Amino acid sequence: MGAYTNAASYTFLVEYYIRNWGGQNTSEQLIPIEYIQKAAAMKDRVKNIVVRDRFEAGSITTHTVIPRSKYKSITVPTDVAVLKHYRTCRDDWKPKYDCINGAGAFQRLTDDSLKKKLEQFIVKDNVTLHDAILHTIKYLDVN
Length: 143
Known about the structure:
Elements: E1 7-18, H1 31-34, E2 37-38, E3 42-50, E4 55-60, E5 65-67, E6 72-75, E7 83-87, E8 109-110, H2 113-124, H3 128-140
Parallel strand pairs: 1-6, 1-7
Antiparallel strand pairs: 1-3, 2-8, 4-5
């Protein structure tokens, strides 16, 4: 836990790559390389990692945490870490947010940083990482 000895949880913001927008690199077989348009990280869609003994029973949900009084929740800055979630626009988001058209909270931004990172590994390791991932995808029968 390093500098955060009183941390009860670490909260990560989530960036959504909306698959309804279509892939930008359609010749690619890996989703993080194909989809590079995202919505900005949103504070109301977070995921938490918790230290279990620093909470009362029942005070943890997927998106909220209520630590015991001497502990606190730490929000991890997006320049340190962010979760990338590749999914279609949920039906319950369509009327509230304009996620299909890429407006409002789901304004489209381009981020090919993960694509570039994966391509570095693929080139550096003479395609072994790429082959291993494709083999795993085929084995798991994931589309």
